[in-house]
Amino acid sequence: MQIADGKVVTFHYDLKEAGGEFVESSRGGDPVAYLHGKGGVVKGLEKGLLGKGAGDSFTIAVTPEDGYGLRKEESLQRIPIKHLGLKKKEKPVRGLICSVQTDKGPRQVTIVKAGRYSVDVDTNHPLAGKNLEFVVEVIEVREATGEELSHGHAHGVGGHHH
Ligand code: ZN
What we know:
Elements: E1 7-17, E2 22-25, E3 32-35, H1 43-49, E4 57-62, E5 76-80, E6 97-102, E7 105-114, E8 118-122, E9 132-143, H2 146-151
Antiparallel strand pairs: 1-2, 1-3, 1-9, 4-9, 5-8, 6-7, 7-8
């Protein structure tokens, strides 16, 4: 079965910056599952995965425009510490990447300055402005269920749990 709109795709990936530093990998944990055509993964990944099938391994180069966006200057914002999605025992220190709720859903931000009750964060995604390389292995391609189609995302391992 080929990857196309309306299919649920499960895959593993290793992510690095183009020609450089390792960023992260899904290996060692559950693979990622997403519903193709619904923006569950960045645009560049969807483009690169289209038409592939289970067992295929390949590299996808993703530009900032098709990835996590361009870096915007002047995107500092002051946020009360209690609004940061900090884990237990996690301290709000400079350089920490954390998650804040916005009107567009959760968003990753980086702390640039920490105060006692609030922090200044850079709201650029940590991978904004970067050319990325995903080394992808497609594990499974299947038809989405009616429920997944109506929710607009994949369920089960690697997908959403309600
Ligand atoms: Zn759902």
